[in-house]
Amino acid sequence: MNTKARALAAGKVSYSSPDVLPVSEAGFLAGTVLLTQDGEMPVEFLSPGDRIITRDRGFAPLRRVARARQSVRAIRFAAGSLGNTRPECDLVLPAGQPVLIRDWRAQALFGTSQAMVRADALVDGEFVCDLGPRDMQLFQLHFDEPHVLYAGGLEVAGQYLPTSSRLAA
């Protein structure tokens, strides 16, 4: 039995398409609130076809949702740590989740007005803290195009489905 089949049998993985499985430290933890056409929704209540509000394109249809229980490094962002109401309340993200920064950090770290960086690149030990590895339910939201989403008041990246994955669906 392969790894994917073992995870399915153990009830540790479920997803909307059998060819998608979280394999990275990017995604959202249960309870993370995202902006949708129907208002703020916890990630665990989202399903394919839901329309997610994006920074770059307005509404974008959610193509797939993958979830798995994984051990991931957790990064805690204190409320307001990246600016006024960014995030709106304390928010925990996996270490590899890309976060869009559009403030002095982007200029200081990358010499540009905005940058997409891994959550763990923003750890300062005070307002953004590395909580270490945690066993958590991780949700990945897949779209047909790259998008910037709103999660708990932060601008973050959704996962992009390459054309070959879309054709297989």
TrEMBL record:
<dbReference type="InterPro" id="IPR036844">
    <property type="entry name" value="Hint_dom_sf"/>
</dbReference>
<protein>
    <recommendedName>
        <fullName>Hedgehog/Intein (Hint) domain-containing protein</fullName>
    </recommendedName>
</protein>
<dbReference type="Pfam" id="PF13403">
    <property type="entry name" value="Hint_2"/>
</dbReference>
<feature type="domain" description="Hedgehog/Intein (Hint)">
    <location>
        <begin position="27"/>
        <end position="155"/>
    </location>
</feature>
<dbReference type="InterPro" id="IPR028992">
    <property type="entry name" value="Hedgehog/Intein_dom"/>
</dbReference>
